[in-house]
Write a structure and sequence with these properties.
The complex is a heterodimer of chains A (194) and B (475).
Chain A: E1 6-14, H1 21-24, H2 44-47, E2 70-73, H3 85-93, E3 97-100, H4 105-112, E4 117-120, H5 123-131, E5 136-140, E6 145-147, E7 153-155, H6 160-168, H7 172-177, H8 180-192
Parallel strand pairs in A: 1-2, 2-3, 3-4
Antiparallel strand pairs in A: 1-5, 5-6, 6-7
Chain B: H1 8-15, E1 17-19, E2 27-30, E3 33-36, H2 42-51, E4 61-64, H3 85-101, E5 104-106, H4 116-122, E6 131-134, E7 148-151, H5 154-163, E8 165-168, E9 172-179, H6 188-199, E10 207-212, H7 214-217, H8 221-229, E11 238-240, H9 245-251, H10 260-270, E12 283-288, E13 295-297, E14 305-307, H11 321-334, E15 349-352, H12 354-357, H13 360-370, E16 378-381, H14 386-395, H15 397-404, E17 407-408, E18 429-432, E19 447-450, H16 453-462, H17 468-472
Parallel strand pairs in B: 3-4, 3-6, 4-5, 6-7, 9-10, 9-12, 10-11, 15-16, 15-18, 16-17, 18-19
Antiparallel strand pairs in B: 1-2, 2-8, 13-14
Classes of the chains: A alpha/beta (194), B alpha/beta (475).
Chain lengths: 194, 475
């Protein structure tokens, strides 16, 4: 994974609440055994007409949305299933950060493992982003700030360890494997307990 | 009183901390049981291969197949009627992965195969006080046994396969107190739909729910599984019910349950798990079970539930603009009118099954409404596992369904997630005992109304949404 420090991009705004993982990537695309190429299935039902042609009115299909790396979405983004295919599809499409007033737990965990930055902000800041789609924003992971076009800088929370992993391009598995001694000691301790 | 009273959640969490969390690092949490299925594991096994890693604790890992599997029987030539080559390839990959990595698999054709959250408890693998994970958000089901059980993504599946641990921040706790008793015709499914309608689909985010109160204590294990199963639909990754005699009786004698002296020791330990008097939760909500009616959803998320005698909401009544837009979008997708009664709404398909309501008690409830009647909709009855199927057939429930004109299928997730070819056609309405009414969940353009097995069966018989209490009166 490439280290992430700063993301500067225009936003694409999906002003819908409770966007669930079945919308992000419908279940019929989960029959894959690898994770590549899922971007074309992203938001499939909303993005394509039944004949497979793009729906021009859908936010991500608009010309000004092309190349946008920051997705601004309504409250409770990513609710529903645990499918990691959801962040895989977003990342494959070119999205590098998701901004909302609330992001579902499992989706957030999955996003963090794939270099997709979950940014949770206050409703007032969110309203400014929704009011002006396509504005250029700057996400600074080191400072934990999201800066809007008008200069508003909003702090966002992110787990310190996940932030470290994102900023250094390391994954959690390596860290876990280094704890082998403690894990084995825990198992030995538990084995003796009644 | 205990000077340091703890909740059930805290006791399980504390017992599984390999390394305590610090501001800089999450806790390293030990996982007792890892359930694996074919959809969310292939990329995890691939990662293990790439890095030359092994499954650290094969005996703590247990696999089945459910999502991509057909619910029609094997063909005369012995082959399975997979929906497409990708489904067949995914199942074949699962067999290869489990063989290569030494994981016990109960795959297609195995007498214990079933929906992973039906299968795990039936195997006796899920036990009180355990940590249980699976690459599936409905892992919350196993909380019915007083196990801390939650869904994880595929990266984390790889973490657990390789290290038997997860990196976790400690969640907060939310007590859901349900007093009173459920009225006849009102089930655990109605209760959880009412809870989610109350807290909202994001209301449990960051929390582990513990279901408490007289109504919860009175629930069977099957009903507790239904209740915990949908905790995720309220945004909570896990739901818990404290173990009691009902739990121990259900578990005793199952294949992986402790035996003999080990059983007695386990029960003694499990009796210490329930929340201590005086322990604090981070938040609390309460409901009166006796006031609940059968519930049904009208919208496109599981929080959009109303009593079956109720009316679809009018977006004009929503003050918040984003919420109003949400209701409008849901009504548009569902093709329902603001303020219309949900009773009498035409139904095309009824689905009875899933990890929420695919257990023997659920099938008994559905049979109550179908017995001696004919269904007016296409009706699929899909047992949650081969064990459920066998038990239902021993009781003659399969005959009740078939005589009513319903399809009696092989076990699997089926039309809950519509990956295996069992699906709605665009525009069709289903009353479904599953857990998600998201747009397209049961097939592109399909419209799902979530309800209990009794309400779903009543809808099948009526060909429309019906009050199940009228149908079973006097029976």
């Amino acid at each position: 994974m490439d280290p992430i420090r700063v993301i500067e991009s225009k936003t694409v705004v999906l002003d819908r609440v409770n966007v669930d993982t079945d919308q992000i990537i419908p279940a019929r695309f989960l029959k894959v055994t690898d994770k590549k190429g899922l971007g074309k299935a992203l938001f499939s039902e909303w993005r394509y007409a039944p004949d497979g042609s793009p729906r021009p009115e859908f936010e991500l299909n608009r010309p000004e949305a092309q190349g946008c790396q920051v997705l601004v979405a309504g409250d409770n983004f990513g609710c529903g299933s645990s499918r990691e295919h959801a962040p895989w599809a977003l990342v494959d499409h070119g999205i590098r950060a998701v901004v909302s007033t609330r992001i579902a737990d499992i989706f957030r965990n999955n996003a963090l493992k794939n270099g997709l930055v979950p940014v949770v902000i206050e409703p007032a800041v969110h309203a400014k982003l929704v009011a002006r789609p396509g504005q250029k924003v700057r996400i600074d992971l080191d400072a934990q700030t999201l800066t809007l076009e008008d200069g508003t800088a909003a702090k966002f929370p992110i787990d310190a360890f996940s932030r470290f992993c994102l900023m250094n391009g390391v994954d959690e598995l390596g860290f876990l494997l280094q704890q082998e001694k403690d894990i084995a000691a825990y198992e030995a301790r538990r084995g003796k307990a009644p | 009183m205990d000077p340091n009273p703890r909740t059930l959640f805290e006791k399980i969490w504390d017992a599984h901390v390999v390394q305590a969390e610090t501001p800089d690092t999450p806790a390293v949490l030990y996982i007792d049981l890892h359930l694996v299925h074919e959809v969310t594991s292939p990329q995890a096994f691939s990662l293990l291969r790439e890095r030359g890693l092994k499954v650290r604790r094969g005996e703590r890992t247990l696999a089945t197949m459910d999502h991509s599997t057909p619910t029609l029987p094997r063909r005369a030539d012995g082959s399975w009627p997979f929906v497409d080559r990708m489904a067949a390839a995914q199942v074949a990959q699962m067999e290869t992965n489990c063989r290569d990595f030494g994981v016990e698999l109960h795959g297609l054709g195995d007498p214990q195969q079933g929906v992973v959250h039906v299968f795990g408890p039936e195997m006796g693998a899920t036990q009180p006080g355990m940590t249980v994970v699976c690459g599936d958000s409905h892992t919350a089901t196993h909380g019915a046994f007083g196990a801390l059980a939650f869904g994880i993504g595929t990266s984390e599946v790889a973490h657990v396969l390789a290290s038997q641990c997860l990196l976790q921040r400690r969640p907060r706790t939310l007590a859901v107190r349900v007093d009173g008793a459920l009225a006849p015709g009102v089930s655990a499914k109605d209760l959880i739909l009412a809870i989610i309608a109350k807290i909202g689909v994001g209301g449990g985010t960051g929390h582990v729910l513990e279901y408490l109160g007289k109504a919860v204590r009175g629930l069977s294990m099957e009903a507790r599984m239904t209740l915990c199963n949908m905790s995720i639909e309220g945004g909570a990754r896990a739901g818990l019910v404290a173990p009691d005699d009902a739990t121990f009786q259900w578990l005793a004698g199952r294949p992986r349950a402790p035996k003999g002296a080990a059983w007695d020791a386990a029960v003694t330990a499990w009796r210490k798990l329930p929340t201590d008097a005086g322990a604090r939760y981070d938040a609390e909500v309460s409901l009166d079970a006796s006031r609940l009616e059968p519930m049904i959803t009208w919208g496109t998320n599981p929080g959009q539930g109303i009593p079956v005698t109720g009316r679809v909401p009018d977006p004009a009544a929503e003050k918040d603009a984003q919420a109003r837009a949400g209701v409008e979008a849901a009504l548009r997708y569902m093709g329902l009118r603001p303020g219309q009664a949900i009773l009498g709404q035409k139904v095309d398909v009824v689905f009875i099954g899933s990890c929420t309501n695919g257990r023997i008690e659920d099938l008994r409830e559905a049979a109550r409404a179908m017995k001696g009647n004919r269904v007016k909709t296409r009706t699929l009855v899909v047992p949650g596992s081969h064990a459920v199927k066998k038990a239902a057939e021993a009781e003659g429930l399969d005959r009740v369904f078939k005589e009513a004109g319903a399809e009696w299928r092989e076990p699997g997730c089926s039309m809950c997630i519509a990956m295996n070819g069992d699906r709605l056609e665009p525009g069709q309405y289903s009353v479904s005992t599953s857990n998600r009414n998201f747009e397209g969940r049961q097939g592109i353009g399909g419209r799902t109304l979530l309800a209990s097995p009794l309400t779903a069966a009543a809808a099948a018989v009526a060909g429309a949404v019906a009050d199940p209490r009228r149908m079973v009166e006097g029976r």
